[in-house]
Specification:
By secondary structure, the protein is of the alpha+beta class. It has 16 helices and 21 strands. It has a seven-stranded mixed β-sheet with strand order 6-7-4-14-11-12-13. Strand 11 and strand 12 (about 215-220) form a beta hairpin. Helix 8 packs across helix 9 (about 255-270), helix 11 packs parallel to helix 15 (about 565-580) and helix 14 crosses helix 15 (about 565-580). The N and C termini lie far apart (about 80 Å).
Length: about 600
C-alpha cells in the first residue's frame, strides 16, 4: 500500500522494501497496532542456498571499544554529577553488626553519606578512591558478632554426602536378559568443589533516586525478575523502579550483578537526585557471590565378555543450581538479608529437565541396554550457590566421560572406538570421528609419563549442540593443557565465527576450572578472597585451540551454548590418566592430587 504496487513486484533487502520506483523500511511500516498482533502467517523458510547473511562470519561491532579501552561496560558509565559508593560487608556469613562509630568517617574528605541499615553498611563519596578509603576505615570501626556456622574440616564432597537428600530416578531402562551377561563390574566416584565465577570485572551497578522513583543500570542476566525482587526489598511498588541493562565484563552465570544493583539503590536513596556507582571490591566478589555448587557423582557399570557395557548406574549428589532473583517465597538479593527489617532468602530452585540443573547431562547419550540414573538433591548448602557455566553438566560429563575411559581400559579397547561402539546417534558419532581425525588420534598410543591425550564428548543438555574435545596435556611440572581440538555440530550455524569463539572460550575456561579452581573456607568465613587464594589460568598457560565446525544448514540451529565445558574437563582428566597411568577423580586436578594418585 505504501508503494502502490502488488506484493509480487516488491523486493526486500536488509530491511528495505523496494518497488514501483520507491522504497520504505520495516521501521517506517511498523506501527504500534501492527506489533500488538500475533504472527499467524505460515511462511516457508528460505532454502540454505538462498541465505545471504546466515552462515557468514559477521564482525562484532562491540569489540573495538572493548579492545581499545573505550567506554564499553557499566564500569565505564559516567553520568553528570555521579557519586561513588562502596559496601562494607560482614566478615562472614553469620556475622551481625554490634556497634559502629562512624563520626570519623563522616568527616573524611569527599564523603557525602554513610549508610547503615541493620547490618548493611555503605559509604558514598565524590571520588572513587575517597569511597574506597572511607569504606576501609568504616570496616575497621565496625564491631561484629560472629558464629562458627560453616562445616568443620572435611571435603565439600564428604559433607554433601552426609546431608539429607531427595532422590529422584531420572532415567531407567531394563533388559534383564542382557543384564545377566554382565561379568566384570567397575565403580568410581568423581567430585568437584565449589567454584567461583571469578569475573575479571567486579560486579557493578549505577542507581539514582529522585522524586520517589529509582533508576538502576545493571549487568544482570534477568532485569525483570531483578526489578520485582528489588521492589520487595525496597518496600516500593514495581512501577516506582526502572531497571536498564548495561554490558558487564561477563561471568557465565549468576554472580553478584543482581546484588550490587540493590546495593546501589540503597546508597542512592541517601543522596536523592545524584547517581551513585557501586562496584564490589575483589575480596567481596570472591567472598559473597553465589558459587557453582559442589557435586559428587558415583558411577558403576558391568561389562560382558566382549567388553560391551550391559549395565550402567549413575548417582549424583548436588545442591540446587539456581538462587536467582524472583524466588516465590523470599528475596534473593544479598543486601536484603542484612537490613534492619531483613527479607528471607527464597527457596533454592533446580531447573527441571530436559535442560536440567544438577542433573544436566547426567543421562548419557550412549546406548546402554540397562541404565539407572538418580539425582540426589540436597536443598541447603553451607555456602551460597547458584548457576555457573553449564550447571551440573561440568561435573556430570566429567564423570561419565572419565568412567567411559576407565571402562575402555578394562575392556582393552581404544577410547574412541569404545565410544563409537556404544553410540547410534550419527551426529554424535560424526563429531567424535571428526575430532579424532583433526587431532591425528592413533589407536593404542599411550602416554610417555609426562604427556598424554584424552577425549571427551557430550550433547549439551542432551538436546543442544554436539561437542567432542581432544586435549593434550603436559604433567612434567604443573599439569597444563598444551593443545586442544574440538568438533562441534550446532545444526545451522548462524555465525560460524561466533560458534568457534564460543567453543574456544569454553575450552579455556573449563580447563581453568578443571585444573586450578576451588573455593576454600574455614568454620567462619570464605578464605579464598584474592587471586593468590583462587588462581585461574593465565594467558601464558592458555592452550592452542583448533575448532572444526560441522555445519548442517538444513537442520534447525541449536547454538553453541556451554557445550564445551563438560567434554573439556573429561578430556583433560583422560589425558592425565593416559600420560601417567594413574586416574585423578577429584577436581581440581592439581599436582598434589596427581602425586597422590601415583602413590596409590
Amino acid at each position: 500500500m505504501k508503494l502502490g504496487v502488488s506484493l509480487e513486484k516488491v523486493t526486500v533487502t536488509d530491511g528495505v522494501v523496494s518497488g514501483g520506483g520507491g522504497t520504505v523500511t520495516y521501521w517506517e511500516l511498523a506501527d504500534e497496532q501492527m506489533l500488538k498482533r500475533e504472527a499467524t502467517a505460515q511462511t516457508a523458510l528460505k532454502m540454505a542456498s538462498e541465505h545471504k547473511y546466515i552462515g557468514i562470519p559477521v564482525q562484532r561491532r562491540d569489540l573495538p571499544a572493548k579492545i581499545t579501552g573505550m567506554p564499553a561496560y557499566i564500569q565505564d558509565m559516567d553520568l553528570p554529577g555521579m557519586l561513588y559508593g562502596r559496601i562494607v560487608r560482614p566478615p562472614a556469613y553469620a556475622a551481625r553488626l554490634k556497634s559502629l562509630d562512624d563520626t570519623e568517617i563522616k568527616a573524611m574528605p569527599g564523603v557525602t553519606a554513610v549508610v547503615r541499615d541493620g547490618s548493611f553498611l555503605g559509604v558514598v563519596a565524590v571520588r572513587e578512591e575517597q569511597a574506597v578509603r572511607a569504606a576501609r576505615r568504616l570496616a575497621r570501626s565496625a564491631q561484629w558478632h560472629n558464629d562458627q556456622t560453616l562445616p568443620a574440616e572435611m571435603t565439600p564432597g564428604a559433607y554433601l554426602l552426609a546431608q539429607p537428600a531427595r532422590a529422584d530416578v531420572i532415567s531407567e531402562k531394563s533388559d534383564p536378559i542382557i543384564k545377566q551377561q554382565g561379568g566384570q563390574m567397575l565403580a568410581a566416584t568423581y567430585t568437584r568443589p565449589y567454584i567461583a565465577h571469578a569475573s575479571m570485572g567486579p560486579s557493578c551497578a549505577v542507581a539514582r533516586f529522585d522524586g520517589g522513583h529509582y533508576e538502576v543500570w545493571t549487568h544482570s542476566q534477568g532485569i525483570h525478575p531483578l526489578r520485582r525482587d528489588m521492589a520487595k526489598a525496597l518496600g516500593i511498588a514495581v512501577d516506582a523502579l526502572t531497571v536498564t541493562h548495561a554490558d558487564g565484563a561477563g561471568c557465565y552465570g549468576h554472580n553478584g550483578a543482581d546484588d550490587v544493583a540493590l546495593d546501589a539503590a540503597l546508597l542512592a536513596r541517601a543522596v536523592p537526585g545524584r547517581a551513585v556507582q557501586v562496584q564490589w571490591m575483589r575480596e567481596d566478589e570472591f567472598a559473597w557471590e553465589p558459587y557453582g555448587p559442589a557435586m559428587v557423582v558415583k558411577t558403576g557399570a558391568a561389562l560382558d565378555a566382549a567388553g560391551n557395557i550391559v549395565d550402567w548406574q549413575l548417582d549424583l549428589w548436588s545442591y540446587p543450581h539456581s538462587t536467582r532473583p524472583e524466588g516465590k517465597d523470599g528475596v534473593n538479593l544479598l543486601a536484603a538479608w542484612h537490613l534492619a527489617e531483613p527479607q528471607a532468602a527464597a527457596t533454592p530452585a533446580n531447573p527441571p529437565l530436559p535442560a536440567g540443573g544438577s542433573h544436566r547431562n547426567a543421562i548419557p547419550l550412549y546406548d546402554f541396554p540397562n541404565q539407572r540414573v538418580t539425582n540426589h538433591l540436597v536443598m541447603q548448602s553451607p555456602l551460597r550457590v547458584s548457576a555457573l557455566r553449564a550447571l551440573g553438566a561440568h561435573a556430570n560429563v566429567f564423570a561419565i566421560e572419565s568412567f567411559m575411559d576407565e571402562l575402555a581400559l578394562a575392556a582393552g579397547a581404544d577410547p574412541v572406538e569404545f565410544r563409537l561402539r556404544h553410540l547410534k546417534d550419527q551426529r554424535a558419532r560424526a563429531v567424535i570421528e571428526m575430532v579424532a581425525q583433526k587431532s591425528d588420534w592413533k589407536s593404542g598410543t599411550s602416554g610417555d609419563g609426562t604427556r598424554g591425550r584424552g577425549i571427551g564428548f557430550a550433547r549439551y543438555k542432551n538436546l543442544g549442540c554436539y561437542v567432542a574435545v581432544v586435549a593434550e596435556v603436559d604433567v612434567e611440572a604443573e599439569p597444563r593443557v598444551t593443545r586442544a581440538w574440538a568438533a562441534v555440530d550446532v545444526g545451522l550455524a548462524i555465525n560460524p565465527d561466533g560458534v568457534i569463539n564460543q567453543l574456544e572460550g569454553g575450552i579455556i575456561q573449563s580447563a581453568s576450572m578443571t585444573l586450578k579452581e576451588q573455593v576454600t573456607f574455614d568454620r567462619e568465613r570464605i578464605t579464598s578472597r584474592t587471586w593468590d587464594d583462587y588462581p585461574v589460568m593465565k594467558f601464558s598457560e592458555a592452550p592452542q585451540v583448533e575448532v572444526t565446525l560441522i555445519n548442517r544448514p538444513d537442520l534447525p540451529p541449536v547454538g553453541a551454548g556451554e557445550g564445551a565445558t563438560g567434554p573439556t574437563a573429561a578430556a583433560i582428566a583422560n589425558a592425565i590418566a593416559a600420560a601417567l597411568g594413574a586416574r585423578v577423580r577429584d577436581m581440581p586436578l592439581t599436582r598434589e592430587r596427581i602425586i597422590a594418585a601415583l602413590a596409590q
